[in-house]
Amino acid sequence: MKAAILRSPDAPPEYGDFPDPIVLGGGETAELVAAGIHPVVRSLASGRHYGSVGTWPLVPGVDGVVRTAEGTLAYTGGLPPPHGMLAERIAVPELRLALPRNADPVAIAGGVNPGLSSWLPLRARIGEVEQLGTVLLIGVTGMAGMLAVQNAQILGAQRVVGLGRDPAGLARAAQAGAITVVMTGDRATNAAAILAALGDTTPSIVIDFLWGAPAETAFAALGRRGLDEDRANIAYVQIGAMAGPEAAVPASLLRSRRIRITGSGAGSVSIADIKSQLPVYMQLIADGRIDVPTQTFALPQISDAWAASTQSGRRVVVVP
Question: Which CATH number fits domain 2-102+287-319: 3.90.180.10, 3.30.365.10, 3.40.640.10, 3.20.20.70?
Fold first, then answer.
């Protein structure tokens, strides 16, 4: 079959022949309809992600939309390496969900992965505090950040504050309803800007797509002085590490604030939660309540698609 093939971690994929996937128990062979090139796809393919198996050649791609032998459009993912979604044929695992009747498969392929990354922790937080109040998004300029703005608003956030550097991405976030903060100064200046955007509120949840230095800036902004009991209750959720794999957490922050720092990703998120929310989120996309800007490339154009996927803005989606 034809597929996008990565022959080494530091080379772009090329269009070529790859062995057909093997169908495992409960699965079936299906045809590619649409698959997104998300940051996690690139990270896994390069071997940088903790979930990478570290062997090449491989076909990249973690999720997408397929057409089954019966003609049903279904969302699926989690294929065993070295086979991924960016191929003519996919051995679909048992986990597959029919698309809503009115769904655009390109929007589903481009939006489910980045959108669920914030939807799941935001929903979980509502179960703890009843109302989201203020949501702080670190790294709002990418697709996941833009969808997180929409997610927070759908789930009832009163204020959404988004941090980032890219002017175009910040403009998109502001248009979507976020209060944006430009992170171009030193740490003290940026922390002061965050505090000004938060106003007299404290975030009930922080969604961090960047980690590294931006996280340390957020920690500085969230710190407090005094020995009185903290009335805030902050959930800090680490999702991505685009700005670096490590961040120093001040001891004073942990002692002076009611704050809990956790991660959300493959391995830590409940499969049951993902299964329960996939149909919900796909329906939101299908109904147009979630806007997913996309750019499509045909599978033979995989080298161009791979290069375009490094740009923020529209999510690159590969079609047959």
Answer: 3.90.180.10
Q: Cα separation of 192 and 177, whole Å?
A: 21
Q: What is the pTM of this model?
A: 0.94
Q: Does the domain made of 115-263 have the CATH classification 3.20.20.80? A: no
Single-letter code of the amino acid located at 119: W
Alpha carbon distance 154, 47 (integer Å): 35
Please write the tens of the pLDDT for every residue from 256-309: 999 999 999 877 888 888 889 999 999 999 999 999 999 999 999 999 999 999
Q: What is the largest CA-CA distance in the chain?
A: 66
Distance separating alpha carbons of residues 21 and 110, to the nearest angstrom: 23
Q: What is the CA radius of gyration of the chain?
A: 20
Measuring CA to CA, which residue among 20, 14, 16 is closest to residue 2?
Answer: 16
- What SS3 class is residue 153? helix
